[in-house]
Automatic annotation (TrEMBL):
GO molecular function, one term: metal ion binding
Organism: Sphaerobolus stellatus (strain SS14)
Domain of life: Eukaryota
Known cofactor(s): Zn(2+)
Family membership: Belongs to the peptidase M13 family.
Domain Peptidase M13 C-terminal per the UniProt entry, residue ranges: 586-798
Gene Ontology biological process terms, A to Z: protein processing
Protein's name according to its UniProt entry: Endothelin-converting enzyme 1
Amino acid sequence: MSKLLLGVILVLLVLASVFFGLFIGIQHRLSSIEHGGHEKTITTTETRISTSIVTTTLVSTAPPSEPTSPPEEKKCMDSNCIVLAAAVLSSLDATRDPCEDFYGFVNGGWMDEHPIPADKGRYGHSDEVALKNRMIIRQILEQNASLIPSPDSQTLTKLQNLYASCMDEDHLDSLGIQPLLQVVNTVRGLFNGSTTVVDASHDSQHAFSIAPHRGLTAALSYIHSRGIHALFEFIIEGDVGVDPNAMTLWFYQPGFGLPSKEYFEDKDIVDGYTSTLERFFAALDENSEENVQYWPPFPWPPWGGDDDDKKPQYKTPAELAKAVVEFEGKIAIATLDLDRLQQDPFGTYNPVNARNISESIPQVDFPGYWSSFTPRAFPDRIVVTYPPYLESLSSLLSNTSDYVIEGYLIARVTQSLAEYLGQETDIWKANRELVELLTGIKKGAVGDRAEYCVTKVTNTLGFASGRFFVQEAFGGKSRSKATRVITDIVDAFKHSLSGVDWMDTTSAEAAAEKATNIRIKVGFPLSPNTSDATAIAQYYSRLSTDKADFFGNIQRAAAFEKYLEWQKLGKQRDKEIWEMVPSEVNAYFSPPSNEIVFPAGILQDPYFSKDWPGYLNYGAFGAFAAHELTHAFDSAGRLYDQNGILREWWTNATSEAFEERRLCLSEQYSNYTVDDGQGGHVHVNVSSRWTSGENIGDQGLIQAYRAWTAQYDTSFEAGNEFLLPGLNFTREQLFFISFGRVWGANIRPQTAVQQVRSDPHSPSRFRVLGTLVNIPAFAKAFECPVGSVMNPPEEERCRIW
């Protein structure tokens, strides 16, 4: 009966609409006659209800009216489209002019609604997506592992043990600093020769043993086995000058207790860092078994000697802390600037015979050190990234007292492991205050413990947690659709090379060949196979976790990963191995293996969705895909050929023309600054090369735009370019809005300064502004007048591709 009544009502509404239309037409005709006029042709379209359109035509001798406009294109009105449209609209700030402040226009609304949490230095879309990814993993960790079939249940149990041990804060507080003190005492014992054998896992069933060496060598072997930087670092990577797939030992300078070497020139920061180390030393001495108040005992040595002039006495933790910071500052001065380390592949490729290392730094027994990690693959060829550092380090070690060197090692260990202690310990608090100083986060603000613990799980056992994440968050056609976006961009890049006026034919053909040979990886790795429960369980079979030993779990996992890394030495590259775990919100290009990689973690809203219209996917995820592709042809990536070999494969003329455009871009970004929070500003480009590679990568957006326009007709016919409700923008405008949105972020001044000094990526605002001002299609889409911020004169643009 209700259906019948509804039908009757609809019929009556239609009839009423018809009669009303006729009535209006007749009234108009009568009015014309009444005023002595002539009859006219009247074409009216009256829409009274959404299902009824009535057209009434009266014959007349008057001229016909102008033709009506085409019917408005229908918009997607399902719930997903409405939610998506609302998200886009809510991120905008319509009070800002997109031609003057596009970043503010496209992100102002989102930024107003998402202030920085008190415990963080920045908060942007990437942080929001990472949090969502962690919450998915958290739900997995809180499942009942016994209900899951083996071997997944075995893997999940390891993950849950790590998570539970992190969440048990009462237990961590009850332990105090004893777990750390055990490590510190081991370092002291090794350094002084009283300890000779180290079990890196503290687990006899899963031991990664360190060979019995004494002194500095033994202490460094032990520290490095846990992934802690001190004095130097070795990584295993391909020999790019000969065979990029032959895994070789590379000698690198170390990381520091401060974010970059520039911080050692900031008195306030150095004072804060020194105070932190002082608190470390004081807490360790107070809690040591011997209860040593002053370390080492004073005077020392008691008999005096010729070396007294280079071995000053440090009566207090404060004096030792000051000496350690001075020592580390000298190490920082001796290291290569980060811009050259990142952007000068020829300058950082210096292969030498292994004995050259031993001769350059005789204070370290390198054969003994190497045998601690790889007794069956002793290296004979090592690539040194910065040869002068070897001699500088040797000189520093010769002219620094042993107990300052020991203090430096203990400081590096303590700072690296402090966060894994209970929050009631003074060491945890001291380390946290240093983080607050460096990032500007609110003093005493601590984030959600569960969020922190999930982060530790994904950072520590990322491929294991990644298996479960992929199952939950990366299904359906996500992989195939994302891959299609990437391949379209690769095709667009190759097609565009013929129009690049600074690149000659020989170089363009070689570039196209390299692009063709780029390996594309999307979602998750096949080795270990994240989609294979048995493969993941086998990968982690040697690692044990204890739900009551968070500190030990972290140690065992770090030693496990270092062990696996050294197993690569002397072997051929496993081309299925990834450098990022599946849940990571990031992507990368690897020059030696000529591959671009996109974890499932970044293939999430607001970056990508298999259900989005094309203009949004190509504008957002396409920007990342184009960025990584363009890295293959940036200031450093272009120096590796299609096989990953380091050589000049462009002609000299093309290389010189490219350098001119790189310098143009460098000058452009050098004009951008960030507020330092103290009334001053810091320039984005601390050197001409520091951000060059990433800025060039961002310019790849033009390839994503070309790829989208090239496939548009086919995509439109397939119904994949549908419009969204409430968005009164063209598809071209929405492409650029989609790009701009992904970089929305709020950041504290101190964190911004840290990023500028230690991160080759430009701050988010300039990744948008610095890219779009060089793309005329953007200015055309928004009809920006020439001379506006977003539409500079053509001669002021820095266009590469």
